[in-house]
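ok so i was messing around last nite and threw this chain in just to see what happens. nothing serious, just curious
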Amino acid sequence: MHVGSDYTAHGDIYIRRSVCGYTTRRKQITTLSFRWSLSHPAVAETGILTTVTTRHPDELNLYYRNPRVGNMNVIAESLIVNSQYKPVVVNRGTLTGRPDEVLAGNHTLLAVRELAAATAGDRRWKHIPDTLILHPPGDPVWQEILVHEIDVDDDQAARINAIDNRATDLGGYDDTMLSQVLSELPDLTGTGYTGNDLDELLRTTGAMAEEASGFLQQFIDPAPAPAPVTPTAPDTTVPVPAPGSGVTMPSTPIPGAAELVAIHWVVTVPQRDTIRAALKSATQLENLDNAPAALTAIADHYLTTTTLPAVT
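result:
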């Protein structure tokens, strides 16, 4: 990791350009990014001018009052698959008396320390496919962590820590878009989501129920009426094997010949809507895979919970 910077004065405004470049192990391509900061000289005294650099994980300290309880295992998995794609925010501490304190990214620091101390065969991350691993546990890359250094007082340090934790809590998701994005990925490793999470999203957004009840489309967009067909009697002639062929006729009907049947309904629009809602509900509640199974479940429930009058 290489970091360089220079400052240019324009009247009362100081412009700092930082040039950050790094080489990724996956593609061996060096990338450069330019960051510009604007600040008044007085602001520079309070630490708004910042530096992006790398540090050894053991040189940094956790924020002394971080209320966040994060999932370090999920972060470690993301680091293995995605590497560290954003720096942690570190307060130099000249105004607080607590040097090199992480204000944002405390659990990222903990995860990097775990990966630095681990070995390549650590069983905690054996579930990650080899093709997705960018930097395995124990890789020398985890001996450094990308940091964004600032220098602020106690009040601003507390505000930065609080908003970094709270901003995510106040956000939300477009569940339909999220389910589409996750469904298009070949693997959920490194996303923080599991297959069960995706299934729940599909149920919540109705995507799974729509797929399971797709055969009801005929009720929504009925096909044109077919041309009249003159009914003909079915051919019930059974071919008789030729003498001497060695083939004998079965004495009983072939099993399974009539196990599958087609059901065609003609219903009103309100009836269609009721049927569709019932099938969707049964599909979701019973965790069924298709509409015929949902229809059967509804029928079974009715037959087991309703007493039919005796037939005379």
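not much to say yet. Strands lie at 2-10, 13-23, 30-39, 51-55, 61-62, 88-91, 101-104, 145-150.
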